[in-house]
Amino acid sequence: DTGVSQDPRHKITKRGQNVTFRCDPISEHNRLYWYRQTLGQGPEFLTYFQNEAQLEKSRLLSDRFSAERPKGSFSTLEIQRTEQGDSAMYLCASSLALTQYFGPGTRLLVL
Amino acid sequence: QKEVEQNSGPLSVPEGAIASLNCTYSDRGSQSFFWYRQYSGKSPELIMFIYSNGDKEDGRFTAQLNKASQYVSLLIRDSQPSDSATYLCAVGDAGGTSYGKLTFGQGTILTVHP
């Protein structure tokens, strides 16, 4: 499979716990994006990497959220002290130019 | 605040008809426009992109862009029940550090009935 992959696909956690999601982009893509999608809404931009550099973070990304792309390949998104409002689908996308291709997403449920 | 607006629908069309999906955007400087299809519980799947004014055709799909009116549309000809999904319009940033960031509309739910 040469597409974007994400792990885990589903995560259920209790409020206050930390969670970490992983994204593996298409191998030659140097740009990687994280989005969050809630029911009935379009995806909302969270953050963007070009190679290993994090070039932009949305104001949606509170200080409980951190993302890394240490070697310019895979990326992780960590949420600390999860809240019920963090329940959503977390989508990763990668691109070589303007066109972004999405992974299957990680569905997070915070109880 | 850049905005992308879509009619949330649902839009219901009979099988074989043309489905017309519309989108408006607020940032006059936007340069790239995308349509994604999203089945329930799945992630967005790219259908088409368009950068220039006018029409772009790909099989049963035609994207139309009018930058002066800040309007982009997607036509689906010969609609099939398998086209039933949510269609997301996305507008891309270009330049600076926001290269490629997408702003999405809320999506239009399309139902094609036999």
Q: What does it look like?
A:
The complex is a heterodimer of chains A (111) and B (114). Chain A contains no helices and eleven strands. Chain A has strands spanning 5-7, 10-13, 19-24, 31-37, 44-50, 53-57, 65-68, 75-79, 88-95, 101-102, 106-110. The model of chain A has no long low-confidence stretch (mean pLDDT 94). In chain B, strand 7 (61-66) and strand 8 (71-76) form a beta hairpin. The mean pLDDT of chain B is 92. The interface between A and B is medium-sized, with 26 and 26 residues.
A few lines on this structure:
Chain A has strands at residues 5-7, 10-13, 19-24, 31-37, 44-50, 53-57, 65-68, 75-79, 88-95, 101-102, 106-110. Chain A is built from no helices and 11 strands. In chain A, the strands form 2 sheets. In chain A, strands 2, 4, 5, 6, 9, 10 and 11 form a 7-stranded mixed β-sheet that branches.
Rg of chain B is: 14 Å
Give the mean pLDDT of chain B: 92
Rounded mean pLDDT of chain A is 94
Number of helices of chain B: 0
Strand content of chain B: over 45%
* Structural class label of chain A: mainly beta
Helix content of chain B: under 10%
Provide the low-confidence segments of chain B as ranges: none
Largest sheet of chain B: 6 strands, mixed
Unreliable sequence segments of chain A: none
Structure summary, number of beta strands of chain B: 11
Q: How would you characterize the largest beta sheet of chain A?
A: 7 strands, mixed
Helix-strand layout with pairing:
The complex is a heterodimer of chains A (about 110) and B (about 110).
Chain A: E1 5-7, E2 10-13, E3 19-24, E4 31-37, E5 44-50, E6 53-57, E7 65-68, E8 75-79, E9 88-95, E10 101-102, E11 106-110
Parallel strand pairs in A: 2-11
Antiparallel strand pairs in A: 1-3, 3-8, 4-5, 4-9, 5-6, 7-8, 9-10, 9-11
Chain B: E1 4-6, E2 11-14, E3 19-25, E4 32-38, E5 45-50, E6 54-58, E7 61-66, E8 71-76, E9 85-92, E10 102-104, E11 108-113
Keywords:
A: mainly beta; 7-stranded mixed β-sheet; 4-stranded antiparallel β-sheet; 50% strand; B: 114 residues; mainly beta; 6-stranded mixed β-sheet; 5-stranded antiparallel β-sheet
